[in-house]
Amino acid sequence: MAVKMKFLQDIQEAYAKLAELTMFIVDREGNLITDVTYREGYSKMDLSSDRARESFARVLEPLGAMKTTMLLNSESGAKYILSPIYIHDTLIYYLFAGYILETSSRSFVQQRVKKFMGNPADVLSALDATPECTEGEKLEKIELVKKCSGMLTEYLTLHDDKARTNKKLTVIQQSLELTRRDGVLSNSLMEDILSTNNQFDFIGLALESKDGNGYAVDFIEGERTDRLRGHTFLLGEGFLGHTVAIEQFQHWKNAGMDPRIHFFASIGMDIKSLFCIPIYGDHNVKGVYFGGTYHQELTEQDTREHAYLKSAIISILITTKTLRADLQNHLMELSTFNETFKVITSVEDIKRVLYILVDISLNVVRGPFSCIVLMPDQKHSNVEIVSRGLSTDQINEYGMDVIRRMSAQRTETIDPANPTVHQTEWGTKVLEFPLIFNDDLQGILCVGCYPGNPPENYQSFLSSLAVAGSISMHLHRNKTTSLPSGQMMEVLTNILATVGPEKYERSLRVRDIVESFTKRFYQHDADVLVQASLLVEYDEMVIDELMKDSSVKRVLKEFHQWNDKGKDIFIQGEILVICHYFVQQGEDIKAIEDFKTFSPLLREQFIDYVHHQHIIESEISIASVKESGSMEVDRIDINGLKDMTQLSNREIDVLNLVLKGCSNLEIASELYISDHTVKNHMTKILQKLGVADRSQAIAKVYKLGYFPIES
Questions:
Q1: C-beta of residue 665 within 8 angstroms of C-beta of residue 676
Q2: Environment class of residue 48 by beta-carbon count within 10 Å: exposed (0-12), middle (13-18) or buried (19+)?
Q3: What is the CATH number of the domain that holds 21?
Q4: Which positions ≥6 away from 483 have C-beta within 8 Å?
Q5: 24's torsion region: left (phi>0), alpha (psi -120 to 50) or beta?
Q6: Does any domain span residue 177?
């Protein structure tokens, strides 16, 4: 604060000298912010009078919406310049510069001074010493004052942005530490949140009731809030119910003027400003986070950043609490990863990213420690480790052990989806997840587990967390904010395969149907629809934040609009909807025939496509028997091949393209994966088939009776 005020004072004094005007800065109520810089005697005498100060305060009252520099008249008739100083869109201060004595106005001002100040000789003498200004000199002075206020505005805005960023990082760290320590929502958590945001007089959290009939205020902290705890409301009722209903952030500067204020006013909470934001858990609204003030008027900018950040943290907590009840089946689902990924990618400091990864992993596993061992580069020999729960000796011993083991391993043999289970010298089991992106091993996420707490319970979520951390570290190191669309699509499909295998399998089937259907009827739309089909299982918000390809985002937005609200959409979105719906209904054509919401032409085309596919498959089957010359040749389908060879769905996708004669690059392009990933799949295919090269693989699968279906 002292540095900031000194800068304001220094700039003010410099421009006061340039403009040859008295200058000072006041807040919106007229209180001095800087010391007055006097440049001529008349200003000092006039401004020291009670009458002048009262007159100046009256002038400020109606200027709350002042947007530009003004030339105003003082009570004595001399003129002064008033220039607003903003931080973003909020008027904070005024810069005063005066007085200006215009040509031929001296006698008029002298008369006014005699009238209001009782003919004081010293004031008149000072006025006689004040030079008059020509029109050109007046305009020059106004321009200098504008430049001064502009410089002050820019400085204060940058200072505010820096303070907001530091506060945001501190709040993230404190909230995640609270999450790790407490593991559950509590009033102490709300109290800590309130203490880090002193612009609010109260904050609270209302959650859905267990019977599903309405919502209740479960947690509340701040002045005059005791009677609010336990208050209930229905969907759409009051400020809180309305926020749940529309599922959007809302802000009211003057909430007291709205009739919905009764919910708060009835228990003595006379609110000035209020914000509300929905809280999510597993894609559904679970409640609303809210807060406000009693006297201070807050802008939307004052509240939005805090609201979004805290709601994301609380959403993680709620989702974690829900999923903890069934750790054996799935500790974390895709919704939790989405919320976590949003928090990680919003942080600008790489060190904060590392601490977030450590804190979240420790909170999830509830183990003895978590740490990240960063791989040293060629320029540095020191090993950097970020940890919680380890002593200095343990950090040194374990960290060097990790580096030795990883340095001896070739990068291409590291599988990000399969962590190493290692045991420390002191007997603790550790899950070690490589933080690797584009074959660049950046470090290892190491999470300790207590005895009796099976590590496999956490592998799915922690693998995805490691992927998110790898992406975030990659973006920070390359000073960018997002991945190219092709790389991001590969990352998202791999995450879905790890975290939600059923959703991943469904998206692959949707992709296959979209591809063959569009090749027949909508070939010009095929590429973008095939890409979009692989991402249909993701939330629209995740796609909007992470994908750069606008055409894919548009199609998926239409898909979600139709699914959520049944809105009319363009044909591309409707194609994706009908293909996804067909897969959801077990590929039952009757479901399409009975569902009349689809456009008649598209429904007719799709029904024709499905019937045609069945005919083609029958013709191929008969032809293959005839060509073999024997009725005893048994063909096997994909499921049969999987049973006989233990190949995964993705490996069969690769194998089908190999059978069609595609190169690695062509396979990578067709499946939206990297060339390196294709090589890994090919290595596993050859191992599972027990053959040495592609030719032997092709011969083996044909011998087994498997033939790829042409699309």
A1: no
A2: exposed
A3: 3.30.450
A4: 471, 474, 475, 491, 546, 548
A5: beta
A6: no
**The last residue of a domain, from among 433, 452, 481:** 481
pLDDT of residue 284: 82
pLDDT of residue 3: 64
Q: Are residues 314 and 338 in the same domain?
A: no
CB 270 within 8 Å of CB 256: yes
Instruction: Report d(CA 346, CA 395) in Å as an integer.
Output: 29
Give 215's strand partners. 208, 233
End of a domain among 261, 296, 324?
Answer: 324
Type of residue at 141: K
**Taking Cα atoms as reference points, which of 480, 538, 477 lies closest to residue 506?**
538
Residue listed under structure tokens 């205020």? 217
Q: Does the residue 614 lie in any domain?
A: yes
| Cα gap 157→146, rounded to integer Å | 16
Question: Which domain, by its residues, includes 680?
Answer: 638-704
Split into its structural domains, the chain has a count of 5
Sequence-ordered list of residues with C-beta below 8 angstroms from that of 421, at least 6 positions apart, any chain: 429, 430, 431, 432, 455
The position carrying tokens 């790790």 is: 180
Alpha-carbon distance 174 to 190, whole Å?
A: 12
Cis amide linkage into residue 15, ω under 30° from 0: no
Query: Do 553 and 602 sit in the same domain of this protein?
Result: yes
Q: What pLDDT digit, counting tens, does each position of 18-30 carry?
A: 999 989 998 888 8
Q: State which residues of the chain have pLDDT below 50.
A: 182, 325-333, 615-633, 711
Same domain, 378 and 248: no
Which one-letter amino acid corresponds to residue 3?
V
Q: Is 309 within a domain?
A: yes
Is 0.70 topped by the overall pTM?
A: no
Residues 246 and 279 placed together within one structural domain of the fold: yes
**Which among 573, 537, 579, 568 has a CA at the least distance from the CA of 552?**
573
Residue 147 contacts residue 12 (beta carbons within 8 Å): no
Which bin fits 390, alpha (ψ -120 to 50), beta or left (φ > 0)?
beta
Per DSSP (E only), the strands in 226-353 are 232-233, 250-252, 273-281, 284-293
Residue 168, in any domain of the structure: no
Are residues 214 and 319 part of one domain? yes
42 and 188 fall within a common domain: no
Cα 547–chain centre separation = 13
On whether both 534 and 676 belong to a single domain, the answer is no
What pLDDT was estimated at residue 472? Answer: 76
Residues 6 and 148 in one domain: yes
